[in-house]
Amino acid sequence: MYARVTTAYCRKDLIDKAIDIAENSIAPAARKQHGFKSLITLVDRENGKGVFISIWESKEDIEANEQSQYYQEQLLKLMVTCSADPI
Asked: pTM to 2 decimals?
């Protein structure tokens, strides 16, 4: 298995919105992606830091996913809550 880690710094007043987006929009979309296994969301409310870990069956699945527009579309969903670009 392989993991992709995305870190986002969210506005503290929008952390609950970021969690909602991850759980109710990003995770359901991810489940439709070939090779996707799971999504783990970790949040540090005090610092506004969110870490999103997606687990994939293979390196090829991650690479194919990143070459499609899926990953960029998911990042755009989070941008409304971020104080900086996700890493």
From this structure: 0.87
Q: CB of 74 within 8 A of CB of 36? A: no
The DSSP output letter for 28 is H
> How far is 35 from 55, CA to CA, in rounded Å?
9
pLDDT band at 4 (very low <50, low <70, confident <90, very high): very high
Asked whether 40 and 53 are in contact (CB, 8 A), the reply is yes
Tally DSSP H helices, then E strands, for the chain. Answer: 4, 3
Handedness of CA 36, 14, 78, 83 (dihedral sign): negative
pLDDT band of residue 8 (cuts 50, 70, 90) is: very high
